[in-house]
Amino acid sequence: MGFAPMPSSARITTPPAATVQGESAPYSPQAATRSQNSPLPLFDVPLRLVGVIGKLYVVLESDRGLVLLDQHAAHERILYEQMLNRLEQKELAPSQRLLLPETVELPARDAAFLRQQLPVLGRLGVGLSEFGERTFLLDALPPFVKVSEPRRFVLELVDQLKAAGQEINTLRLGENVVAKTVCRHAVKANDPLAGAELENLIADMRKCAMPYTCPHGRPTILEMNYRELEKKFGRQQ
């Protein structure tokens, strides 16, 4: 696939004898039976990177079968946990200054709502400050937020935070809700990632406390074991 090699510290561990002269080892019923009798969580088993389909789903192989990883959901999970860790440790998240700061004018009610969230947004790397009674100045964004229209990002952020606030029935949003909303602008579908970036993504997922769902509850990874594959291909009755 043309993937670049990674340093040994970041490389995904490959199971012994998993490949022979560049080809996958044949399916072993004994190994599959052992895996099914005492299955390990997916991020605790060796995974081999195969490729990407649909510019979104990372194809991996384990000794149990086929594994698919949603790169956007995975990146959201990683960023979300990193943000919460920084907030817990009272650290400021990195931010990137805009070449041209932008002003954002809001209705009075939305301005009052956003004003309450400024301290948390600032700690998460969103550089917003009051610039008048209903106007805010945006001069920085987290490095992972790649948007062509920063002003629209703020307007969407306000809408999403208001919706989340209604769901949890409170005007004062928790830090975790703000972090989830900001993380929506992580790596998107169709954003191409190179082999080294994908390997780092999986290595970072192994460090997460809850790697199997994104912050919004969607799965990050799916598995189809050899038994399921055999049934799909009519090899098993």
Q: Main attributes?
A:
237 residues, alpha+beta, formyl-coa transferase, domain 3, Ribosomal Protein S8, Chain: A, domain 1, three-stranded antiparallel β-sheet, disordered N terminus
Write structural notes for this entry.
The chain has 237 residues and is an alpha+beta fold. The chain folds into two domains: 1-8 and 26-94 and 192-237, MutL, C-terminal domain, dimerisation subdomain (formyl-coa transferase, domain 3, 2-Layer Sandwich), CATH 3.30.1540; 95-141 and 145-183, 2-Layer Sandwich (Ribosomal Protein S8, Chain: A, domain 1), CATH 3.30.1370.100. The chain has seven helices and nine strands. The strands form three sheets. It has a four-stranded antiparallel sheet with strand order 3-4-5-9. A hairpin with a 2-residue loop joins strand 1 and strand 2. Helix 2 (71-88) packs antiparallel against helix 5. The longest helix has 18 residues, at 71-88. It is elongated. Residues 1-35 and 168-172 have low confidence and may be disordered.
Task: Furnish the topology, listing elements before pairings.
Elements: E1 19-20, E2 23-24, H1 29-37, E3 48-53, E4 57-62, E5 65-70, H2 71-88, E6 96-105, H3 108-123, E7 127-130, E8 135-141, H4 150-167, H5 175-183, H6 195-206, E9 221-225, H7 226-232
Antiparallel strand pairs: 1-2, 3-4, 4-5, 5-9, 6-8, 7-8
Helix pairs in contact: 2-5, 2-6, 4-5
